[in-house]
Design a protein that fits this description.
The complex is a heterodimer of chains A (411) and B (316). Chain A is α/β, with parallel strands linked by helices and 411 residues long. Helices cover 54% and strands 7% of the residues of chain A. In chain A, the strands form 2 sheets. Chain A has a 5-stranded parallel beta sheet. In chain A, helix 7 (159-172) crosses helix 8 (179-189). Chain A is globular, with a radius of gyration of 24 Å. In chain A, 36% of the residues are buried. In chain B, the strands form 2 sheets. Chain B has a 5-stranded parallel beta sheet with strand order 2-3-4-1-5, sandwiched between helices. In chain B, strands 6-7 form a two-stranded parallel ribbon. Chain B is α/β, with parallel strands linked by helices and 316 residues long. Chain B has helices at residues 7-10, 23-34, 51-63, 82-94, 116-128, 147-150, 163-176, 183-193, 197-210, 216-226, 230-239, 243-257, 261-272, 279-298, 302-314, and strands at 41-45, 71-75, 104-109, 133-139, 154-158, 180-181, 213-214. In chain B, helix 9 (197-210) packs across helix 10 (216-226). In chain B, 57% of the residues lie in helices and 10% in strands. The mean pLDDT of chain B is 87. Chains A and B meet through helix 12, helix 13, helix 15, helix 16 and helix 17 of A and helix 9, helix 10, helix 12, helix 14 and helix 15 of B.
């Protein structure tokens, strides 16, 4: 079962909301030749469907979608050599395309230097529609692009729309779910359809939504607001004593001792302060990066020691170290209208991915007298090559790999 | 059991005669088996040198057809917790073996992955069941095992196979599989495998999935894919000053490959020497690797520690 993939948008008729907006995007692409503005910017919160809609339209109009996202290099040179060239190419047998540049607010740092001026140039000269997506259209640095683009705002589907969507999925998948559980899930995810699907998959145990797992999920999410307010207090002081007292009274699971599995990366309690600091410190205090992360690292060692020895007094050192990590040398109050990003280590998505990989490793391990970790290091990489080169090998049958495994391996 | 199509299983030696390399060890073990009396054994040595294979051969030679009923294979790193190990062993050891050999055999793989406490518990278990069970502990480093265990066992150290041995193994497989294997390709497989037969056979099978006729360049291609450039790329991004991008890439890479923190540090450490920076700086970074590797062992969240390491590449 992979709900996320199965129920992602394939054609725009399946849309559960934003139909008018989508039509606007479609019209823009169809009538591209007559447009004054050659780019279109889609604004909307995470998981609302920005990227999916573009792909669905591409699919319907038989246009190729050329995507550049935040995992690609997006500096001036790379941009010119990819999008720059693609936006001009006109082959004899005209096959249209859409150029999609995802998450444009996430562009910063040395490696993406020159992105903004370059993209403006490309927009002026493009022969194909350029679509940009963002969750933060009001950011200062997007102003120039905004001027040259048609803007479309996508809003999250209403709770009613999401409910009908979920109802349909659970009945198709034969998952037992109470209406109240679906409503809880919808409230929890605040319109993020992607997160919604991942959640359902995660808390479904033998075709039934488990109330236990659902409750756990709700607990985790409610902490988020408490943490954000805690973080803004932490960063708006420049005093170690104040910060450490704040942390002493801060009830946000600095430590989660339930996860003692040390072998894999511990992605436990994605909600804890640790992970919030980890995510936000490099952006807030880039000047002292190795110093502040060293503090986090030391705090983390203490955490490990507590888990091992149950010597809880070490917690006090964690508090001081974390408190100190939020102090800034070039402290300045204006800076502090900060927005905090939630931790990027996507715990839930990772679980799904690792489930698939673990099941493959188990299959290898059971046939080759090797442990899971050995299989991963010493056999898995080769299996990947073999499957990629020849997806009809005998050993696929032998290892009992299913189509999802094969797809995962050939990625 | 059906014949396997995975080389490392298909061509795993099934008798002492088929076994290649480790001659001295094989002879000693063979005489143990012929006298029908084997002590507890420790097989130490790097991966792919025949430890598991030899243990399987012992079981086959002692028990013949019924070897599976009298042989238990446990993995210390998977079957987490000594309690699981103890329960499983207890269940297995309770019944008498179905053969004229008076004991069963338990292979405890990667036994150096056990904690000290677990090893002490294991030692008790070994004593309690020594009448009905013989243990074979395989590990990479026998120094990680506690003295009381070592003193109860006969230790054998397995060495990486030499070129002659590896060539013989690969040539035999190539003949069976109708593969054309160039001499240069053979040499390259050997040097990439460093005497690890599992690795050598895996490389060979990967090559054979591309083409039946294997040249030096086919091997090069495979070896390149196995050692991806990602780590170097990540370090270069960090050196150029973009910490956030570097760490996002690192996270992505770890998830994609499912590697542990120590795996990553190993590759970072071996990559530093090839970076385009001053020697003094290289040494600083290598030193930091050691520091972080130690923290990794003490801490609980590997990624934070790796980030701390990565942030050292950014400044200065």
């Amino acid at each position: 079962m992979n709900l996320l993939k199965k129920y992602s948008l394939k054609i725009t008729n399946e849309l559960i909301s934003n139909k008018k907006e989508t039509q606007k995007i479609k019209d823009f692409i169809i009538n591209f030749k007559n447009q004054d503005k050659k780019a279109l910017m889609i604004n909307g919160p995470t998981g609302v469907g920005k990227t999916s809609i573009v792909y669905a339209i591409g699919n319907e109009l038989k246009l190729e979608v050329l995507e550049l996202n935040s995992s690609d290099f997006r500096d001036e040179k790379s941009l010119k050599s990819t999008v720059g060239i693609a936006s001009k190419q006109q082959s004899l047998f005209f096959k249209g395309k859409i150029i999609l540049i995802d998450e444009i607010e996430g562009i910063y740092g040395v490696n993406d230097r020159g992105f903004y001026p370059t993209i403006l140039e490309i927009i002026d000269e493009t022969a194909f529609p350029i679509i940009l997506t963002t969750a933060e259209i009001d950011e200062e640095k997007l102003k120039g692009i905004k001027k040259k683009s048609v803007c479309v705002n996508l809003n999250p589907a209403t709770n009613q729309e999401q409910f009908l969507f979920l109802k349909d999925i659970v009945s198709k998948e034969k998952i037992q779910a109470q209406d109240s559980q679906l409503v809880e899930l919808i409230n929890l995810n605040k319109g993020d359809i992607r997160a919604l699907l991942i959640d359902i998959e995660l808390i479904t145990v033998s075709n039934k939504i488990s109330q236990d797992l659902l409750d756990q999920l709700i607990n985790v999410r409610n902490k988020k607001e408490a943490i954000i307010s805690g973080l803004s207090k932490l960063f708006s002081s420049n005093n170690l004593k104040f910060n450490s007292e704040l942390l002493n009274n801060f009830d946000a699971d600095i430590i989660d001792t339930s996860k003692k599995n040390k072998s894999s990366i511990v992605f436990s309690n994605e909600d804890s302060l640790f992970y919030w600091l980890e995510e936000n410190l490099p952006k807030i205090n880039p000047g002292e990066i190795s110093y502040v992360i060293d503090l986090l690292s030391k705090a983390e060692i203490n955490k490990g020691r507590i888990i091992k020895t149950q010597h809880w007094r070490l917690l006090i050192y964690i508090n001081y170290l974390l408190a100190a990590s939020a102090l800034m040398k070039d402290y300045n109050e204006q800076k502090l209208s900060l927005t905090f990003r939630s931790p990027k280590r996507n715990f839930r998505l990772w679980q799904l991915v690792s489930k698939r990989k673990t099941s493959i490793l188990e299959k290898i391990s059971s046939r080759t007298h090797t442990s899971l970790s050995r299989s991963n290091k010493e056999i898995y990489p080769y299996l990947k090559i073999m499957v990629k080169n020849n997806p009809h090998l005998e050993l696929i049958k032998e290892l009992d790999l299913n189509t999802e495994d094969i797809e995962y391996l050939s990625k | 059991m059906l014949d396997s199509s995975i080389f490392i299983e298909k061509y795993r030696p099934k008798s002492f005669e088929e076994f290649v390399g480790q001659d001295i060890i094989v002879n000693r073990i063979k005489s143990f088996v012929e006298n029908n009396n084997i002590p507890h054994l420790i097989f130490a040595g790097s991966p792919g040198t025949g430890k598991t294979t030899l243990a399987l051969i012992i079981a086959r030679s002692l028990f013949g057809e019924n070897w599976r009923e009298n042989f238990l294979e446990l993995n210390s790193s998977d079957d987490r917790g000594i309690n699981v190990v103890r329960e499983t062993i207890k269940d297995f050891a309770r019944t008498r073996p179905m053969s004229n050999v008076p004991y069963k055999i338990i292979l405890l793989d990667e036994s150096d992955a056990l904690t000290r406490e677990a090893q002490h518990a294991l030692r008790r278990t070994m004593e309690n069941y020594s009448n009905t069970c013989r243990f074979i502990l395989s590990c990479n480093y026998s120094s990680k095992l506690i003295d009381p265990i070592i003193s109860r066992c006969a230790i054998f150290r397995f060495k990486p196979l030499n070129m002659e041995n590896v060539f013989a193994i690969l040539k035999k497989i190539a003949k069976h599989e109708n593969l054309k294997l160039e001499e240069k390709a053979l040499e390259l497989i050997f040097s990439a495998s460093k005497g690890d037969v599992r690795k050598a056979e895996n490389i060979l099978q990967s090559c054979s999935s591309i083409s039946k006729s294997i040249s030096e360049s086919t091997v090069k291609e495979i070896v390149k894919e196995i050692n991806p450039k990602d780590i170097k790329n990540i370090l270069e991004i960090a050196l150029s000053g973009d910490f956030i991008k570097a760490r996002n890439k690192l996270l992505e890479f770890m998830l994609k490959e499912g590697l542990s923190g120590v795996d990553i540090i190993k590759s970072i450490q071996s990559e530093i020497i090839n970076l385009n920076i001053e020697d003094k700086r290289k040494m600083q970074l290598i030193d930091k690797c050691g520091d972080i590797e130690f923290r990794l062992v003490e801490g609980s969240d590997e990624f934070i520690q790796l980030e701390a390491l990565l942030s050292n590449f950014v400044e200065k």
